[in-house]
Amino acid sequence: MTELKCSVTSCGSNKQQMCTLHSINVDGATAHCKDDTCCHSFHDRSSAPTNSMDSGTPSMETEVRCQAIDCQYNDAKACNASYIYVQGSGTNHSNDTRCDTFKPRA
Question: Coil, strand, or helix at residue 51?
Answer without folding.
Answer: helix
